[in-house]
Design a protein that fits this description.
Length: 321
């Protein structure tokens, strides 16, 4: 069997910092290259092969892919929703520019007989205020109101186009909000559902930047990593959606997660001070219909709200004092 040589861009991010070790465990630490932007995280220096550089630099990325004979790319570089609203030009340049570069390099290599498989994440941010918000279908209205969402819709259409026109094997998931404890989230609208655990453990209280009643689809990191690898390992005949798959685990609102935390930390109190992120959350789905992912490549989530809260508190509890 041919050895996979994998490149993960955005490797220091919330998702990359957990995907890289998972891939290294599976494919060997010398076969998974982590691309960091400016610095290498402390605990990553000796963990496997890595490079530092700017993903907007096409020549640099192309050289990297060619020199190391990369066969699979997980392209996670991105500027997320809340950050993107503060700097829409940066969000556009990074999210669209780096994706187009990666696709064009893969297209060029394919012309030379070298196949590259690509994973690129979309998001529930691809939906917008005109999208049906309950059990949002796989195929529906995509009219996002954030620049981040605009780049996700355009990205979905672009990867679908490159699949159809150039037969590139690109696969994608519309991640919901991802909850994890190893690395802090990178400036998204669902970050409250991670911050709340820090508040609970440090001060037994948390002020949410989203209001009570704001339902959003969410997923525990373990499920997100497994979904990503399972999608990439699925037989290509099973991948029937080449824009991006709806995928979800649970939907909850701030009061529900607070109630679940209170089962472990009885004194915990939540209060509310919504900011600009409330408007973004109000334009996103409350819940997602991911039946296509479940039918096509057998997606199943493992973590519900109770399991997730208990695992978060156990793991974060040992590092947050
Ligand atoms: N975390 C979530 O809840 C979530 C939900 C939906 C979709 N996604 C998508 O998943 C991907 C990864 O998300 P994340 O949460 O890990 O993001 P993150 O912000 O934590 O990490 C993104 C990484 O990209 C790097 N980066 C930014 N610009 C770069 C550049 N020019 N060159 C090289 N590196 C650069 C940053 O340094 C950062 O480490 C993104 O495409 C995001 O849109 C994430």
């Amino acid at each position: 069997m041919k050895t996979e040589k994998i490149l993960v861009s955005g490797a220091a991010g919330q998702i990359g910092s957990e995907l890289v070790p998972a891939l290294r465990q599976k494919y060997g630490k010398d076969n998974v290259f982590a691309l960091y932007h400016r610095t290498v995280p402390k605990d990553a220096a000796n963990a496997g092969v890595h490079v530092i550089g700017d993903a907007t630099n096409k020549d640099f990325i192309e050289k990297l892919i060619r020199e190391h004979g990369i066969t699979t790319i997980y392209h996670l570089v991105g500027v997320l929703s809340a950050k993107g609203e503060q700097d829409p030009d940066l969000a556009y340049a990074v999210n669209m520019g780096t994706l187009k570069n990666v696709l064009d390099i893969a297209r060029q290599l394919k012309n030379e007989g070298k196949e590259i498989k690509i994973f690129w994440p979309s998001s529930i941010a691809a939906f917008g205020p005109t999208t049906p918000r309950d059990k949002t279908p796989q195929r529906t209205i995509l009219e996002p109101s954030t620049m981040y969402g605009v780049t996700k819709v355009a990205g979905e259409l672009l990867v679908n186009y490159y699949f159809r026109k150039y037969a590139l094997d690109i696969r994608s998931l519309r991640y919901p909000g991802i909850i994890s404890w190893k690395t802090p989230p990178g400036g998204g609208t669902t970050d409250y559902a991670v911050e709340i655990f820090y508040g609970a453990l440090k001060e037994k209280k948390y002020t949410s930047f989203l209001n009570a009643g704001t339902y959003l689809p969410m997923m525990y990191m373990d499920d997100a990593i497994r979904a990503t690898i399972e999608l990439m390992e699925a037989d290509s005949s099973k991948i029937r959606i080449r824009t991006s798959y709806n995928i979800t685990a649970v939907s909850f609102e701030p009061e529900e997660i607070a109630r679940e935390i209170k089962k472990h930390i009885a004194e915990f109190e939540i209060s509310y001070k919504p900011d600009f992120r409330q408007q973004i959350a109000d334009s996103w789905p409350k819940s997602i219909d991911d039946s296509s992912a479940r039918a096509d490549w057998n997606w199943r989530h493992h973590f519900g709200l109770a399991e997730m809260v208990s695992d978060m508190l156990k793991n974060l509890g040992s590092i947050v004092k």
